Amino acid sequence: MWGLTSLLLVLPLTISYSQHSPPTPAVEVTQAGVTVRLFSETLRQGRAGLLSVSAAAEPRAVFLDETLTFFQLQGDPTWYALIVAPLNQSPRAYPLLVEADAQTLSVPVQITSGGFIQQNVIIVSDMGGLFDRDVEDAELARITTTARTITPTVYWLGRGFGHPIETTLTSPFGALRTFNGLYETIHTGWDYNAPIGRPLVASAPGRVAFAGHEAIRGNYVLIDHGYGVFSGYAHMSVVYVTQGQLVDRGQIVGLVGSTGRSSSAHAHFEMLVNGQWVDSTDFINSLPLPR
Length: 291
Ligand SMILES: [Zn+2]
What we know:
Layout: H1 4-10, E1 27-31, E2 34-38, E3 42-44, E4 47-54, E5 60-63, E6 66-67, E7 71-73, E8 76-85, E9 93-100, E10 103-112, E11 118-121, H2 133-146, E12 176-179, E13 183-186, E14 189-192, E15 199-201, E16 206-214, E17 218-224, E18 229-236, E19 238-239, E20 246-247, E21 252-255, E22 267-273, E23 276-278, H3 280-285
Parallel strand pairs: 3-10, 11-12
Antiparallel strand pairs: 1-2, 2-4, 4-8, 5-6, 5-9, 7-8, 9-10, 12-13, 14-22, 15-21, 16-17, 16-20, 17-18, 18-22, 19-21, 22-23
The structure holds zinc ion.
């Protein structure tokens, strides 16, 4: 932990950060009373980053052709937004354009390589229908479309994000997987080693946006944490929540299983920000979030 004193010198009002956050913004640009702050120096492919703007009126900002949605926290006049480096975005610097209080600021954001691995997966059981590009694309489209919803509530405020189960992580986010040497997909989340029947819990407070069955993800739950942040729980044997239900961090959403495109019991956990897949472990461990 770092001292609160240094924070008070930097930010106009008292807010605190999670213990994993850096003590000061990595990048700070000020122009005629408008200050833009980035909380990480670079953004790896498949990562989310936090930015803030200190301005009198709500800013407008665009990054990679996406208009950002700003949010404010009670008692804090700072405007916050999340930006995302998509998994397949070519590594180089891209401008973040911010318009606020009649000023226009352009802040370069360097996207770096995600360092994703390649995996060969052999599946011996009959899962023919689950290696169908149309089935997979339709499922991905349903999830990313839902995850572009902007619910104007910061459900995670004061609670942060945690792992859905305490166990070892196996297959990583972003891996390019080739099934039986023929079918390629990108792994959208992390796999957790767990036997059938172990509880999976909500990573953070939120509202259940989907609870049901998907061909590849099997029994699946998608939770809306507000302002474009979503978490997904796949391959479950049983689902305990229903669409529209409010859940708290740590609340059981279902049990580990092996439904959908899964060769053995495990948990698959994934996160999206603004409809883009992001590395959930990075979001849980490293991303500084206002609390
Ligand atoms: Zn997985």
